Amino acid sequence: MPSERTEVQVRPGAEGDLEALTEIYNHYVRETSITFDTVVFTPEERRPWLLSHPEDGPYRLMVATSADSQEILGYATSSPYRAKPAYATSVETTVYVAPDAGRRGTGTLLYKALFEALAGEDLHRAYAGIAQPNEASTRLHERFGFRYVGTYHEVGRKFGRYWDVAWYERPL
């Protein structure tokens, strides 16, 4: 049952996770304004994204699984903040939790593992853009030391309306 506590394990993402990770992401594409993608992906279309997050280096993919069933409950990533070389010590971080796995601390476990993995990397700042409103994501980021730095107003259009994105940063 979704409300039951399940022991969660967090590990680096692997190619075998691609289908489940794509399913989770596509839920947010179809049903929410949390991502500004508007068309769902096939696993094959998401493969380059997965492969851009190796097990080491500044761009990581951490996956949360149920300890008993190994069902994927969510994932967290660090990705390039911008493409220009001077941004190399900055990353953008994000967390996506399966729709039936929320409110169990999965996002917290994912971010804890992600930031531990990034601790030895040559990184200076992490940034997170949170489409508004999203109180749960705001609370998660603030718990991990992110602070609000500003809002891009009406920066994305989805579902026939414009959405704001609040930006947060944290030192690494």
TrEMBL record:
PROSITE patterns: GNAT (PS51186). InterPro entries: Acyl_CoA_acyltransferase, GNAT_dom. It comes from the Bacteria. SUPFAM superfamilies: Acyl-CoA N-acyltransferases (Nat). Pfam families: Acetyltransf_4. The keyword Acyltransferase applies. Signal peptide: none annotated. The keyword Cell cycle does not apply. Residues 8-172 form the N-acetyltransferase domain. Keywords: Acyltransferase, Transferase. This is N-acetyltransferase family protein. It comes from Streptomyces hyaluromycini.
